[in-house]
Amino acid sequence: MKFYIETFGCKVNSYESNYIKEALIRDGFEYINSMNEANIVIVNTCTVTNTADNKCRKYIRRVKREVQSSILIVTGCAVQNNSAAYEMLPIDILVGNNFKTRIPSLLKEFLENRQKIVLINKTRDLTFEDMQINNFNHTRAFIKIQDGCDNFCSYCIIPLTRGKCRCKPFDEIITEAKNLVNNNHLEIVLTGIHTGSYNYEGYSLVDVIKKLALIDGLERIRLSSVEVTELDDKFMEMLKNTPKFCNHLHIPLQAGCDKTLKRMNRKYDLKYYEDKIKEIRKIRPDISITTDVIVGFPEETEEDFLLSYEFCQKIKFSKIHVFPYSKRDGTASAKMKEVEESTKKERVRKLISLSNFLEKEYENQFLGKKVAILVEEVQDNISIGHTSNYLKVTTPQKLEKNKIYEVTYNGD
Q1: Burial class (CB in 10 A: 0-12, 13-18, 19+), 5
Q2: What are the Cα distances from residue 377, in Å, to 218, 221, 224, 290, 397?
């Protein structure tokens, strides 16, 4: 039987979908990259906003409309968050966040008796569902080292859908990394819901990075994201002494206004954030620092937005991922007074414009210089890849995919 997986949301979902794909292939199922030709369609959902949830449900309706005879399996955060709504949909197998490893066995059970299956554990007190993958569907491989979150930012439902913080055993991370390197992955991205909180039997995130750096054949180690509050002295020492660690950090800001940060229930103020960025740049002056900013958070005034804009300008991020605030039912911010949609749109436009300017300014530092790229795509006589500091480079050469080459950066 042929199966297809559609993944919504974050890198953790991508990793988990990759695991499901490998597990089903091992069990004799065939993966195809086409929903319409599949006997089995798996949807890995996201619920970070109401909009994300609506997209998932729209896609599920499309599957039932276009591939009526297929077996439909739905899993992920949207299922965990609103299981009652999903149970009413024509879904054959409905799986909560902590049972994704059981999808192959649940599928076999369904094929035997054709009875609807619902398996959801509605609690935050979840164990770490360990997964091991041998190959990843991209040049750089993800390893999920952590799950859950205990931060409870006022706009975020994820602590309720992913449960409490919990971690992958230290030795299993290293084993998985070695397997991925043996299968020709030169770069590994460590990911989780709150990756920086990693703590397993006394081992920290920094301990993981330092151990990975000792693996022969692993050229790059990257973090998907890290909170500014987790950049302690131990992390800074690692940044200074671990050349395999990529010259890029994604450090969510969310707002450049202290009043807004307080309403968001973030755990730092602007001075703390700025001081940490200065400390990082003393160690690596040309590091790429990217961020997330939510625009139009409830009760954000024009003055609050301008403070946020000016702070981003001051920090000189190399890219800002701009998100208009989107209400998420069940969160503290859902009870706050919303900003007008037209105002949000205008603020988003302004901040994206600033991001584009800052991105170009950062890239221009490297024009004409030699940079090392990991080749991800080769089309005719064009090769495309990324540098350690995540510059996208296109070079007019036919290079070998999944290898690192030194080329001249000419911008894109």
Answers
A1: buried
A2: 20, 20, 21, 23, 11
- Which token pair is 272? 């703390």
- Residue 393 belongs to what domain range? 370-408
The whole-number pLDDT of residue 51 equals 85
Query: Residue 386 forms beta bridges with which residues?
Result: 374, 392
Query: Could you report the per-residue pLDDT of 132-186, keeping only the tens digit for each?
Result: 998 887 789 999 999 999 999 999 999 999 999 999 999 999 999 999 999 999 9
Residue among 268, 255, 354 nearest 298 (CA): 255
Which tokens belong to 116? 């609807």
Taking the C-alpha atoms of 290, 296, 299 and 303 in order, what is their torsion angle to the nearest 10 degrees?
A: 70
DSSP string, 283-337: H-TT-EEEEEEEES-TT--HHHHHHHHHHHHHHT-SEEEEEE----TTSGGGGSP
Q: Phi then psi for 175, rounded to 5 degrees?
A: -60, -45
Residue whose structure tokens are 């210089």: 369
Residue spans of the chain under pLDDT 50: none
Strands across the sheet with 187-191, in order? 141-144, 187-191, 220-223
The confidence score (pLDDT) of residue 412 equals 67
Same domain, 338 and 394: no
pTM > 0.70: yes
pLDDT of 127: 87
Closest CA to 82 of 49, 37, 39: 49
* 3-class DSSP string for 200-268: ECCEEHHHHHHHHCCCCCCCEEEECCCCHHHCCHHHHHHHHHCCCECCEEECCCECCCHHHHHHHCCCC
Helices (H), 130-204: 158-162, 170-182
d(CA 57, CA 378): 36
Same structural domain for residues 48 and 174? Answer: no
Distance CA 106, CA 126 (A): 20
CB contact set of 162 (below 8 Å; sequence gap of 6+): 77, 80, 97, 147, 148, 149, 193
Q: Amino acid letter at 266?
A: R
Tokens 């076999």, located at residue: 108
379 and 357 in a single domain? The answer is no
The CATH number linked to 286 is: 3.80.30.20
Last residue of a domain, one of 119, 150, 178: 119
